[in-house]
Q: What sequence folds into this?
């Protein structure tokens, strides 16, 4: 799943750095394993994700939520070091980032799930 979902769910750790690290990475694994987001990532999707993610961080001031993105940051570093071939071949570092043949979600379904996770996270954190 994309950053918005991970930030929203990591938000439940109440901006505690240790809790955000542990819960953010456990929830990252669960979300990536169960959700098959819209692909391929395109410029529109990157802009959308960046605007919502930055707005979320500025609104909640839950800066430790970024620890929930750690697996994606590590994976991006791995791809940068190993080359784009590992991305194209699917030979990624984390098993939950590998494609297992599941049905790819539409853009609409991906955004709907992210919005639902954002609303749930914001309601729980109130
Ligand atoms: Zn991920």
A:
């Amino acid at each position: 799943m994309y950053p918005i979902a991970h930030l929203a769910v990591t938000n439940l750790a109440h901006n505690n750095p240790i809790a955000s690290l542990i819960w953010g990475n456990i929830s990252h694994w669960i979300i990536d394993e169960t959700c098959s987001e819209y692909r391929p990532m395109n410029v529109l999707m990157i802009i959308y994700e960046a605007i919502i993610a930055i707005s979320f961080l500025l609104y909640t001031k839950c800066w430790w939520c970024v620890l929930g993105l750690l697996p994606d940051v590590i994976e991006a570093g791995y791809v940068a070091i190993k080359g784009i071939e590992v991305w194209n071949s699917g030979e990624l570092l984390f098993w939950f980032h590998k494609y297992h043949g599941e049905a790819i979600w539409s853009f609409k379904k991906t955004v709907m799930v992210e919005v639902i996770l954002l609303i749930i996270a914001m309601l729980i954190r109130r």
Observations:
- Helices lie at 3-10, 17-34, 43-60, 70-82, 84-89, 107-125.
